[in-house]
Each structure stands twice: as structure tokens, then as C-alpha cells.
Amino acid sequence: MSFPWANQYQPKHPVMKWVDDRLPLPRFVYNAVGAGYPVPRNLNYFWNFGVLAGAALAIQIVTGIVLAMHYAANAGVAFNSVEHIMRDVNAGWFIRYAHMNGASMFFIVVYLHIFRGLYYGSYKAPREMVWLLGVVIFLLMMATAFMGYVLPWGQMSFWGAQVITGFFSAIPGVGEPMRQWLLGGFAPDNAALNRFFSLHYLLPFVILGVVILHIWALHIPGSSNPTGIEVKDEQDTVPFHPYYTAKDGVGLGVFLMIFAVLTFFTPNLLGHADNYIQANPLSTPAHIVPEWYFWPFYAILRAFTFNFLWIDAKLWGVIAMFAAIALLFFLPWLDGSPVKSSTYRPLNKIFFWILLFDIGLLGVCGMMPAEQPWVIFSQIGAIYYFAHFLIILPIISRIERPLPMPGSITEAVLAKHADKSSATA
Amino acid sequence: MASESELKAGVEDGVRRRDFINIAAVSFAGVGAGAVVLPLINQMNPSADVLALSSTEIDISQIQTGQAIKTTWRKQPVFIRNLTSAEIDEANKVPLSDLRQPQTLAERTKPGKENWLVTLGVCTHLGCVPLGAAEGENRGDFGGYFCPCHGSHYDTAARIRKGPAPTNLVVPPYEFSSDTVVMIG
């Protein structure tokens, strides 16, 4: 948007010109996601995931609004109203399964979007604000997903709400009153269910608002790219439309195929059978597990099994879990390397993959019961997670010697092309 | 714009009359905003009907020695256990220095009724219902209660002995209305 060679909006139809003169909304869209936004010419498929996350948000909002037309947020009838949607409402099973699995798809693409950012250094100057807003979106998504999971009022819903609101009771002094304030009672019940429904309906629109800010902040410097070299002139870019609308369209097709397989063939693969049992405040399921996208953080929560200094294990777990996400806010300053892309950062590249393995390990630990060897694995995994961001990354980013970089995006693209043609010749 | 002399007339020690008006107006608006926000926040606290459930009477005449029942108080599970003499001995044998939250069995029961252990069935870690109240459930390494969620073990006096829970199972406020009826809350 800020590039001088960006295409200018020229309304062809007199009606569009009339609108544009009075409310330049068509111009705004053209400049944001149309031919008026110049994008680096070398984006790979990892740059699809922002658009895919937007598509997932749209799917969740549409299916969610429809579900709210049939769902009743009352502890007495909520469980049965979900069964009513599944059995009686026309295509209700499809809409609910799409909403359930849509949440998982949303998290899958957002995690890939975040890992893309980590690998290619998208969080670095001048895009720190894009990253910070992204972390805010991630937090809002977690809150929304948690409250949505409570709504069917099954066993996992109820006990998930009990455990998550239990985090707050760890805070000394004000913790317990705060928990009662959040729940509107002494345990999750009708009051909690009602407010969670209200907020679950609200938060997606808050997310939408922050997404708009996220894109706005992105369009100030323009998109990053796999080389991490900033755009220097017009030949480094192509217009967003039709080049990346087409490329994102390919990704969207793959996304929808995977989504369809999940929804139609294994709709409960990522859920828990216990949630088809109505909430029972007197009986805890043998094994409480959150949804898969919370597993790594759940593992960090449970990693503290001992009191340390003057703080007890429970509070440490809660602090560590929130710190694991809060840490991401400081990432742009913890990484001291001026080079963005890990393609040219031999050390960072290695540690990126180790971090990814570590997060995967934490995920498995979060899924397993709190028994050995998973407790010790989650402790090692949690220590490594914090060590990566607080020790390893600040040090290696300041001592590593980057590989020689091409002079511009175009140079990198042409060099790659020359390699290919010489290989085929 | 007022002239320089007019401005000077209103200034005493660098404070203008207008500053007072500004501060007074903003403070008044602030108090008003606070008065409006307070009910919006307070509406989330437990409502009167929820609070009305805060005392419950329970008949304990049917609980045999060594048995326990699960009941509810304020929509939370409550365990009432009739301890055997062996369990009482075991609880009294534990040195207080071994405990995370040192409390004797006597401190957790009523005088003369030391076999009646009344606790919330809410694990102090993250609020799961511990096992051990019903026949044949896992009672953990210390013969009391065991929380399956994150592996907290409670002893025969429902005191935390092992695992992530910070404190003993909570003893709710209660009294014996008669020898066979307990009033919780």
C-alpha cells in the first residue's frame, strides 16, 4: 500500500465511481486485497496460512450464528439442545460437525502461520506490531475455543470449565473470589454457561476487529517473504490480485478438502467420547484432556509438581503456562539477529526445528495422563521451551554468522531460476 | 483567545480557575462512570438464588463405619466419611512436619465426633472430584482420597500428601444439629 508503484483504483462503472467519490470502500478493498496491494513475487505456500486463517474465522462465524439459532444456553437443556441439533435440525449434524472441526482447522492453520513467522523472522522490524497483534488474536482464539467447548455441557465441557477457572484460584488472596466472580457461583453451573455463551458469541467479532488491525499493520511495511530481504523496487513485487488470490485459492482448495474429510468421515476424531455424557458435577472423568490445540500448554501447566521458593506448585504451573504465551510478546526483542529468514541463519534453523520437536513433545505429554515418564518429559520439554526463547535465541542470534545473501528479491528469484535451468539442461 | 492581561488575572501560583473546573468536571464524570461500571461488574458475582443454596442438612445415620457418602453443598460435592479406628490412628500417627499444610485430625473434625470427616469433594489443585468416597474406588497411596486428574494423594484425614494440590481438602463450615444430622453451611 505504501509503495509508490502500487496500482491505483480506477472505477470503470459510473455507479462505482459515484460510490467511490462518496465512500471509498471499493478503493479500500482494492488496496487491501486486490490489485492495489503489491506483494513480493517470491512468496511460497507457507504464505497461504493468513488467508486460510481468515477463511476459517469466516466459517466459524457463519456456522456459529446458525448453531445459535437452535442452541439453548441453559444448564438444564443445553446438552439436549445439542442432541436436538444433531438429530432433528435439518442438516444440523453437518453444521455442528463443521463448527467443531472448523475450530481445529482454525488452530492448525494458525499454528502453521505462527511457525512460518518464527522460521522466516516475520516478527522482526518493521513488522513487530503485526506479530504483537497476532499474539493477541491467538489469546482471543484460545479464550473463545475454551468457552465454546463448555457450551455442549458434556462431561469434558463441565470439567474443562472447572479446571480452567481453577487456574484463577491459584492467585493468592483474590483468586477464589475472582473464580466465583467468573463462574457466578461456586462451581460451573447455569450462570457460567450463560455468560460463556454470551462471550463465545462476542469474541469472534473482537477477533475479526483485531484481524483487521493485524492486516492494517502488515500493509504499512508490506508482506515479508522467504528471503527476508525487503522489497527494493517494482520488479520485486506483483499485485496481490490476481497472483496471490490465485495462489491462496489453491491452498484454500487443499484446506477445504482436509476439512471435508474430517467433517464427513471422522467428525469425532479430535473430540472426546466423554463429552457425549451429560455434565455430572459429582463425577470427574477418569482422564481430563483438553482439546489438542491446548496440549502443549496443558503439559507446561502440569510440569510443576513441586513447590519452589515460596510459591506453591499450583501457582507455578499457572504462571508458567501464561508465561509460555506472554513470552511471545517479547520475541521481536529477544531475537537480536538483523537477518530475518532462517534460510540464511544456519544456527537458528537448527534450533527452530528443535523447538518444533519440543512443542510436539509437550503436546504428547499434554495428551497423556499425569504419570511417569510423561511428567519428566513435560518438565524437560517446559524447561527447553523457556530456555529456547530466553537463553538460546538471544545468544545464537547475536553470535551466529549469517550465510551470504542475495542483493534483492529479484536476484534471489533469478538465481534460483538459473539453477533450475542449468540442472535441466 | 483572551488577552494576556485577562489570562494573568485568573492565574494564582500558576493555577487557573479553569483548571479547577476541568478537574471538577472530569472527577464528577469519573465517579459517574464508576457508579455505572460497578453494577456491570457485580452482576457476574453469584446471584441471590445461587447463594440461597448455601446451607444443607444431611442425614448421616445410614453411614456405617468405614463408609463414605457424596452429597452436594452449593452445587459442589461434599464427602462425609465415617472413619474406622484404624484410619483415625493412622491419621494421628503422622508427624505434622510431614504435612504440606499441617493440621491434626482433631482440628479437622468436631470434638467428640472425630470419626466424622466432612470435606469438600473438590481437589484443591484444579477442582476435580477425588476418588475414594465410593466403594472400591482408588484411595491413593495414603488410604484417603486420590485425584485422578493430576495425581494428588490425600490421607485418611483428607490431608494432601503427594501431588500438585497445595492444601488439604477443605472442611466446610458445619455443625451437628443432632447426632445423626449434619448442617453444612
Number of domains of chain B: 2
Return the CATH architecture of the largest domain in chain A: Up-down Bundle
Oligomeric status: heterodimer
Q: State the helix count of chain A.
A: 16
Question: What's the shape of chain B?
Answer: elongated
- What is the CATH class designation of the largest domain in chain A? Mainly Alpha
CATH class of the largest domain in chain B reads: Mainly Beta
Fourth CATH level, the homologous superfamily of the largest domain in chain A: Cytochrome Bc1 Complex, Chain C
Estimated structural class of chain B? alpha+beta
- Low-confidence stretches of chain A are none
| N-to-C order of helices and strands of chain A | HHEHHHHHHHEHHHHHHH
Content of β-strand of chain B: 25-35%
Written as H for each helix and E for each strand, in order along the chain, the element string of chain B is HEEHHEEEHEEEEEE
Largest interface, counted with CB-CB under 8 A?
A-B, 37 and 31 residues
Rg calc of chain A: 24 Å
Your description of this structure?
The complex is a heterodimer of chains A (425) and B (185). Helices cover 63% and strands 1% of the residues of chain A. Chain A has helices spanning 14-22, 25-33, 49-68, 78-87, 92-120, 128-150, 155-166, 175-183, 190-219, 240-265, 295-303, 313-326, 331-334, 346-367, 374-399, 409-424; strands at 38-40, 237-239. Chain A is mainly alpha-helical. Chain B is an alpha+beta fold and 185 residues long. Chain B is built from 4 helices and 11 strands; from the N terminus they run αββααβββαββββββ. In chain B, strands 3-11-10 form a 3-stranded antiparallel β-sheet, with no helix packed on it. A 3-stranded antiparallel β-sheet of chain B has the order 4-5-6, with no helix packed on it. Chain B has a 3-stranded antiparallel β-sheet with strand order 7-8-9, with no helix packed on it. Classes of the chains: A mainly alpha (425), B alpha+beta (185). At the A-B interface, helix 7, helix 8 and helix 12 of A face loops of B.
